[in-house]
Amino acid sequence: MNLFDLKGRVAVITGGNGGIGLGMARGLAACGARVVIAARDEAKNAAALAELGEHAIAIHADLTAPGAAERLMAHVLDQAGRLDILINNAGTNRRVRPELVSDADWAAVLDINLTALMRMSRAAHPALAASGRGRIVNIGSMLSLFGMPFSPAYAASKGAVVQYTKACATAWATDKITVNAILPGWIDTELTQGARRDVPTLNDAVLARTPMKRWGDPSDFAGIAAFLVSDSAKFVTGTSIAVDGGFSVQG
Predict the structure, then answer these.
(1) What's this model's pTM, rounded to 2 decimal places?
(2) Side-chain half-sphere CA neighbours of 233 within 13 A
(3) Residue 154 catalytic?
(4) Is 14 exposed, middle or buried (CB count within 10 Å of its CB: 0-12, 13-18, 19+)?
(5) What would the pLDDT profile of 158-207 be if each residue is shown by its tens digit?
(6) What structural domains and CATH numbers belong to the chain?
(7) What pairs with residue 184 in β-bridges?
(8) pLDDT digits (tens, 9 = 90+) for 114-130
(9) Which of 9, 76, 154, 192 is an active site residue?
């Protein structure tokens, strides 16, 4: 018995062409899901498709554009015929202190991290309900749990992701849709590589606080994603699971 069997299921992963998103895409594809990558970078989309195999699909999508979520859902249903899984992974950050954050910075971060996530979930709801075993996984952050001085908009958006996850979990349980969140810690991605260049002390600080004494890798998300969208997690909803090597439990 394969506890994580996803054969016959269709999964949309926003921002799934790199980093944590691609790590989760690999995991779902390995379990038999047909993966749909929704992201803006055409070159990265093509590279992800080449790796994920002939059954994967890539759709160019700017999720901040009006009507983008509805158009994406229509395209997925036209190309794949169904939707069983939505992973809201697309996100961005602006590293600036609260007293310096501009309205434009604030809007740019919340538009993709929170508003686009809401729109995608809303647009996907009918198809997920029709599936009879719909799954949504929202990507939060360790900043959903505690504060740092240089990412106020990011922290506000990711804290809201956890509360939105709980709201949808309670609202859609009778539709047989589970809604959970994954909270990544310090993961080795393009985004955090930029942070390490900007903050020379960051690497040592992360390693000092992380019990596992390493940065996370996108491959660390393949298993948790496969679990949360599988039948093994059919009675798990409204949860937020940290994937951070123990960083968030340190005092």
Answers:
(1) 0.97
(2) 26
(3) yes
(4) buried
(5) 999 999 999 999 999 999 999 999 999 999 998 888 888 888 999 999 99
(6) 10-246 (3.40.50.720)
(7) 243
(8) 999 999 999 999 999 99
(9) 154
